[in-house]
Design a protein that fits this description.
202 residues, elongated, mainly beta, 13 strands, 13-stranded antiparallel sheet
Length: 202
């Protein structure tokens, strides 16, 4: 008599491991939202090492629309790149050693194949130190702006066409910068004078 084979029950969880192709080089892990229907993110692993390779995040209102993609180093498992698709395409690149952000590449809103600007960061402070602004062709740099990470002030502007730095803006002395403070006796005399003026006015 043949025994009827029963299939194992699938655990009703928000985390589901999918192995669409056992010979594939990667494995996928789908993370669903609390409603159990829409996809929050898909995590890809290396089938041999088990290390995380990529995480694709989906839009909250439309799980067919990608919000961002995180890419990881196969050896260390640290994040090396994030591709954002919110409002416009941008790519954040990270330092493998420290995990801190190295640069952000911003693309044209209308044409994501063209670069609009690149921001470079200081590894110690995490602040922007260089901004390169591109021309409409998305390939040629128009202006490079360098920023002091401590003061966060622009140190100089460089026109990439002439390779000559623009003179930084020089602020003129304000009329009240050279005013000297009065000593206590002079302050007291001025206070008495003001009191007398007010008492005579009424």
């Amino acid at each position: 008599m043949k025994t009827k084979m029963t299939l194992p029950k699938i655990d009703n969880t928000h985390l589901t491991l999918l192995f669409p192709n056992m010979s594939s080089e990667t494995k996928e892990k789908i993370v669903y939202r609390k409603n159990g229907k829409s996809i929050d993110k898909v995590i890809e692993f290396d089938a041999k090492t088990g290390s995380k390779i990529k995480t694709t995040h989906y839009d909250y209102f439309d799980d067919k629309k990608i919000r961002s993609i995180d890419e990881f180093d196969k050896q260390t498992g640290k994040k090396i790149r994030t591709i954002n698709y919110v409002l416009y395409k941008s790519i954040d690149e990270y330092d493998i050693e420290s995990g801190k952000k190295l640069r952000t590449i911003n693309y044209n809103v209308k044409d994501e194949t063209k670069i609009s600007s690149i921001q470079e960061y200081d590894l110690e402070t995490g602040k922007i130190i260089t901004v390169s602004i591109y021309k409409r062709d998305g390939k040629t740099i128009s202006i490079i702006k360098r920023i002091d990470p401590v003061t966060e002030k622009v140190t100089n502007w460089v026109n990439d066409n002439t390779k000559k730095p623009f003179e930084p803006v020089k602020f003129t002395t304000r009329c009240y910068d050279n005013i000297k403070m009065k000593n206590d006796e002079e302050k007291e005399d001025i206070a008495k004078l003001i009191d007398n003026l007010y008492s005579n006015a009424f």
